[in-house]
From TrEMBL:
Organism phylogeny: Bacteria, Bacillati, Actinomycetota, Actinomycetes, Pseudonocardiales
CDD domains membership: HTH_XRE
SMART domains associated with the record: HTH_XRE (SM00530)
Molecular function as annotated in GO: DNA binding
Pfam families named in the record: HTH_3 (PF01381), Peptidase_M78 (PF06114)
InterPro entries cross-referenced by the UniProt entry: Cro/C1-type_HTH, IrrE_HExxH, Lambda_DNA-bd_dom_sf, Rad_response_metalloprotease
Domain HTH cro/C1-type, first and last residues per copy: 17-71
Species annotation: Saccharomonospora piscinae
SUPFAM superfamilies named among the record's database cross-references: lambda repressor-like DNA-binding domains (SSF47413)
Family from the record: Belongs to the short-chain fatty acyl-CoA assimilation regulator (ScfR) family.
Protein name per Swiss-Prot or TrEMBL: Xre family DNA binding protein
Length: 363
């Protein structure tokens, strides 16, 4: 064991320490207390200006609940070049939570890269249609959505299984861990694959689909835009609305008033929420602003913001990573532990990232 720790110390990668610390949700000073070092020393380990001793490597691994080998860079965990993640509200999301969420997404990319050595994934095919994030004028978001529907050769009418659609075009979709569930759905791009992370507590088929469409919008339009602004988020909403409810197809179906029976029928047909339909009717100027506001007041009064009436289909589930792990296991090529070790991920984290559904507890 001592020899291995000495080897890790010699090959120590400060970036992997940063990743492990962020995954745990610790600040540098909190980690420093746990390993009985100074915050300056931790910063030096992370920026590569100083290497930790073997005993410090052991203390870091214990404090961060990882195998010491986690701190070594290998071909399966090479740093992923990432754009800044798009979080819904920067004001309500702490920096530590954002760092933890981003680190988790990076781990998803590392795991996918390791699995892809054994299983061929779809090639990434996510066209870029940049829209300036400093202006709400124009129809850029709607045009970007129309172009994507054409490039992905989507038929007219409602979009089918949305998560499967984006996975078939080379995107990763995973659920966030429960301990980071305060962060809503978010996304970012990497040199390997785009990543969409979904909130594990949002148990709503319709809202989840709009979340996915919203994040596709960020990935298509906003790679160079400053995340979190009201304009950028509004553009992603407009993109999602056009992707899921094309104006030239749904405009004649939307009511001018809050006809709940008609809206309920449209909800089932287009696989979107009542609130999304009301939003679409207002933005297409089919429904007047005062009518929309009154309808949303009714939605709030009746408690529909949390749960709308009517049948609730099962959540769409990611399948790209889960199916790959199942395939390798069924063919006796590799089990979960082998794959987790290959990408140097803690087993519980590996299972969370490769799960079809949000895990209710660490396993």
């Amino acid at each position: 064991m001592n020899d291995r720790l000495e080897d890790v110390a010699a090959l120590f990668d400060g970036g992997r320490l940063t990743l492990a610390r962020q995954l745990t949700g610790l600040r540098k000073n909190a980690l420093a207390v746990q390993i009985q070092k100074t915050p300056t020393a931790v910063a030096a380990y992370e920026n590569g200006s100083k290497r930790p001793a073997a005993s410090t490597v052991a203390a870091l691994a214990l404090a961060l609940d990882v195998n010491p080998a986690f701190f070594i860079t290998s071909p399966s965990n090479l740093p992923a070049t990432t754009a800044t993640p798009h979080f819904r509200s920067l004001r309500s999301t702490s920096q530590i939570s954002r760092d933890q969420a981003h680190a988790y997404g990076c781990m998803a990319v590392y795991i996918a890269t390791a699995i892809e050595r054994h299983v061929q994934f779809p090639e990434r095919n996510l066209p870029q249609h940049p829209v300036a994030g400093d202006s709400s004028a124009g129809t850029g978001p709607e045009e970007a959505a129309r172009l994507l529907r054409k490039e992905w050769e989507l038929p007219s009418g409602p979009v089918g299984h949305l998560i499967r659609l984006v996975e078939n075009h080379g995107c990763l979709v995973v659920f966030s861990p429960l301990d980071n569930a305060t962060v809503d759905a978010y996304s970012f791009d990497t040199a390997q694959r785009p990543v969409i992370l979904l909130n594990p507590l949002k148990d709503d088929y319709y809202r989840q689909r709009f979340d996915v469409a919203h994040e596709i919008g960020h990935l298509v339009m906003h790679l160079d835009a400053e995340p979190g602004s009201r304009v950028v988020e509004d553009q992603a909403h407009r993109f999602a609305a056009e992707l899921l409810m094309p104006a030239d197809e749904i405009a004649n179906e939307l009511p001018h008033k809050a006809d709940w029976r008609t809206l309920s029928q449209l909800k089932q047909r287009w696989n979107v929420s009542l609130q999304a339909l009301l939003y679409r009717a207002r933005t297409l100027e089919i429904m007047k602003d005062v009518t929309y506001r009154n309808a949303m007041t009714t939605v709030s009064t009746r408690g529909w913001r949390r749960r709308e009436p009517g049948p609730m289909p099962m959540l769409e589930q990611p399948s790209l990573l889960p199916r790959a792990v199942e395939l390798l296991h069924s063919e006796n090529q590799a089990d979960e532990l082998t794959l987790a070790n290959e990408c140097q991920a803690p087993l519980r984290l590996f299972r969370t990232i490769t799960s079809r559904t949000p895990l209710t507890e660490a396993t």
